[in-house]
């Protein structure tokens, strides 16, 4: 095992919004894990709410005190006794889709919440309480992904911090894969002006799909056209003719919903579901809290519509996205509609979190260690 310092800086959360950078012991690698020296941390729209304990879903809690967490980019600093694929110095992505090795039903977003049942809460509290907002982190092997630095940085000219976009995209790629989106098909993505939806547009295009972006704000939709040249947009006004407005673009093969908690009850969902073609597919990938779906039973049955939910992702989805990026198919810079809006030093994490509240499609904020 490589030599590690005995102490490090970490952002410790003692309670909602009660964070302080403290000196704490450096973790040690155990079987199934490696130690990563953190370089860059991701801030996106939900990160400030996680920090302040204001996530709309009241069931999403954290086991305070803990080290704050979100996806990260770093370098392997030390390996565990059963590590075979990593060596010190490797550039890696750490994702936050944390699951128990012996029970896939025990699943959380690492550093964001500790689950909804006692077994899952115990798993997080006893084994994975501390997240990535520290100079070193003990990361599960299953959540750590090697990145080809020569291709990504040397050949393609990406910056290391650009690679943090990869942390958001597996959720979206997984949803698109689960409804079998194919090259040449037309996909409606709505609402389409947020960070996640911007990533969904980019991934769907990299998969060869035609994209129609839907939303209420005409100005924001025009900005999307500038960010993602070649897409089409439709303004959803919450009116009876929204279905016709969507279908005016021709056959809609699939619809991906990315509505946040605040979109609960919005009428666009029913219109978009009804706009897909016979045999079409719908993926529910957002955070709405509707108790029922606004979809006519007989219409769904007669038109053979598939509606499925999609939560998080599998390892194959991360590997596929990394390969797409290394091949230059998925572009994580301005050429692909992505942007690192701002970077902050660790000591100015509060400014980074505040900046993260106002992100739009394809943009992220980065904290540097």
Automatic annotation (TrEMBL):
Residues 200-324 form the Alcohol dehydrogenase-like C-terminal domain. GO terms for molecular function: oxidoreductase activity. Keywords: Oxidoreductase. It holds the Pfam family ADH_zinc_N. It comes from the Eukaryota. Residues 50-147 form the Alcohol dehydrogenase-like N-terminal domain. This is Alcohol dehydrogenase. It comes from Trichoderma arundinaceum.
